[in-house]
Design a protein that fits this description.
By secondary structure, the protein is of the alpha+beta class. The chain has helices spanning 26-39, 51-59, 130-135, 139-146, 155-158, 216-230, and strands at residues 3-6, 13-16, 41-44, 80-84, 110-117, 125-129, 149-153, 184-188, 190-192, 199-201, 208-211, 236-239, 246-250, 254-258, 267-274. A hairpin with a 6-residue loop joins strand 1 (3-6) and strand 2 (13-16). The longest helix has 15 residues, at 216-230. Bound molecules: succinic acid (SIN).
Length: 285
């Protein structure tokens, strides 16, 4: 029987009582979807899945998302292996607060990460609750944000002059950089969740490059305030990994950050994404 245990932090939950290697029965799938909507991040400990099983689990929530800029696993176009070797010195992948691929017209609704090799220290994944962060802004600042449009792009990490293009240390993962990463996509700064109807801040220091109609300084003043606000401890939840845990997060209302601190140890994760929808803002409601 499915048991959903909310994290003490107030968002995120641990789900037990299911075997994710098998297709979920309709009532179990509905319960997982309800828990996902309620908690934003779900962890399923003790799930030793094969690649086929992770793909099949993912497809129960929608079509695969499109994963650009990272060469996928051989023969598995929808699985990224996030591998960092013990002797690697390049910064760990995902070490900046972000919502996955928010520069896409239809960013992925969910990301699913399966822990394969977990280092004995470090390597936690941190999450921030962007709906709770929105709820605690003053009404006047909420109204300001409700009417703003944010500009998203992959150029800071993946562009021709981006972080990965300028990297000198070797990296196990093959990351592609170039002009395709420099396209800009506009999304509402406040996103209305298509399932819960809750409003959440939708911006990140990795992918948001400004606010429409504002100077760079104006945009960064507002965005900088929002980033400081979102990542406050009261909105955060720290996921500590164990091998065979499957973690699933909602990119529409959370940010995440992959912590390092495991130099000298191998870390291997398998990642799939679930396709998402157009980003709906407050004024469109
Ligand atoms: C990511 O998908 O951003 C990486 C998360 C992690 O490796 O913990």
């Amino acid at each position: 029987m499915i048991t959903v245990t909310p994290e003490a932090s107030g968002f995120g939950a641990v789900v037990t009582g299911l075997d994710l290697a098998q297709p979920l029965a309709a009532d179990a799938l509905a319960a997982v979807k309800a828990a996902f909507a309620a908690h934003g991040v779900l962890s399923f400990p003790g799930q030793p899945l094969t690649l086929d099983q992770q793909e099949a689990f993912t497809l129960q929530f929608g079509a695969f998302g499109e994963d650009p800029f990272i060469v996928p696993m051989p023969g598995r176009p929808h699985i990224l292996e996030l591998r960092r070797a013990a002797d690697e010195t390049a910064p760990n992948f995902g070490a900046g607060w972000h919502s996955d691929w928010s520069f896409q017209p239809h960013p992925p609704a969910a990301t699913i990460l399966h822990g394969k090799v977990i280092p004995p220290v470090g390597g936690d994944t941190l999450f921030a609750d962007c709906a709770a962060a929105y709820d605690t802004l003053s009404p006047a600042f909420q109204r300001l944000c409700d009417g703003l449009t944010a500009l998203h792009s992959a150029r800071l990490p993946y562009g021709r002059d981006g972080v990965y293009a300028n990297e000198t240390a070797t990296r196990t993962m093959t990351i592609l950089t170039g002009p395709a990463a420099e396209a800009v996509e506009a999304h509402p700064l406040v996103r209305v969740h298509p399932v819960t109807g809750r409003r959440a801040l939708y911006c990140s220091p990795v992918y948001t490059i400004g606010l429409e109609g504002m100077t760079r300084e104006e945009g960064y003043a507002i965005l900088g305030h929002l980033y400081q606000h979102i990542v406050q401890p009261q909105f955060q939840f720290r996921h500590r990994w164990a091998p065979d845990t499957l973690l699933m997060w909602d990119n529409r209302c959370t940010l995440h950050f992959a912590e390092g601190g495991y130099d000298g140890h191998l870390r291997v994760m398998h990642r799939t994404t679930v396709a998402g929808e157009a980003v709906i803002g407050v004024t469109a409601n």
